[in-house]
Automatic annotation (TrEMBL):
Region spans: Disordered: 68-170
The keyword Cell inner membrane is annotated on this UniProt entry: no
Skewed-composition ranges (Basic residues): 151-161
Name by which UniProt lists this protein: WRKY domain-containing protein
Amino acid sequence: MRKYMDNKKEELKFENSMSNSTFSDEIQGNSFAPFFDMPTCDQQGGGGGDQKGFMDLLGIPDEYTQSLLDWFPTPSSTTTATTTTTTTTTTTTMPPQQQPQEQPLPESSEVLNTPATPNSSSISSSSNEAANGEQIKAGHEEDQDQEKTKKQLKPKKKNQKRQREPRFAFMTKSEVDHLDDGYRWRKYGQKAVKNSPYPRSYYRCTTTGCGVKKRVERSSDDPSIVVTTYEGQHTHPSPVTPRGSIGIMPEATAAGFGAMTSSFVIPQPQYQQQHHHHHHLQQHPYMYSSQLPLNISTSTTNLNSSSFPSFIQERRFGTSSSASLLRDHGLLQDIVPSQMIRKEPKEEYNG
DNA sequence: CGGCTTTGACCTGCGC
DNA sequence: GCGCAGGTCAAAGCCG
């Protein structure tokens, strides 16, 4: 179906890696664990990885780590994963759990460099851009000064520093850029990335009211790696797999780990088996973003109990609606663990 | 015909 | 203030 994916594939046929993109820079700068050689989509398997290390980075207590490890069985033992120990110190500060779109995220959530400015106020209601999509802005009309020749662009927001939803990214080894995570996305833009031969694509969740966005770009450093960055929290269950949440995940929760959970689901062994022979498709999601999923936030302390579990709960993979699973490529199964990496403020736009 | 991608223009933040 | 780069808009076009 999605022919566009195919196109993508075409257009992005692997080439030699080149210089580095911003992303790569960030990543490299923080040295992340090497990727496993996942046989891209057709062969599943994947790699194990240093989940433990990952958990550590997340500040997840062993108990959870343990369970997570269960969720992340290491299929092929292996690999390279030498785990770099580079830790991302900064990762700890997370925004307090919040209702999706209820309150503006302090910029700090993004990283820590930017002092959580007091100006946070500006962002009108949080619902601003992330939540309702950018539609809201349409309302204003104050600045007409802009000639807006061809398109009438929305009035610009005043001096409010654009606030962003927390984001986290995953690096996936895949031939396709747009990984099917069970949600429906509409591409709304594509831009060339500086120092990278690969473009960055921008997607928005098509569900009305859900302002989750994601950016997808291929690492120029390793063309086989796709970096998917989620921003925002889904306010709804996956359309593709109604049962995806198997009821375990209340909306709030879903929203919480939001982008991540919803988008990246830890496979549930049982489920997988039940439905597919694809049970070997275990993924190892990895985030390297400075900001952890909302739920995990705030303090390493509560991070765990309430948040993490929920994280593991929603397993979309292996659900019956494996529409996604059945696809040949671009599955999150290809997600490869790496380490969380702090994004450089510089590179990262904070809004 | 609806849903989605494509794509150039426009907006915005930031560093110089 | 200028220019750059990232992010977004929306018309046009494609496709099932």
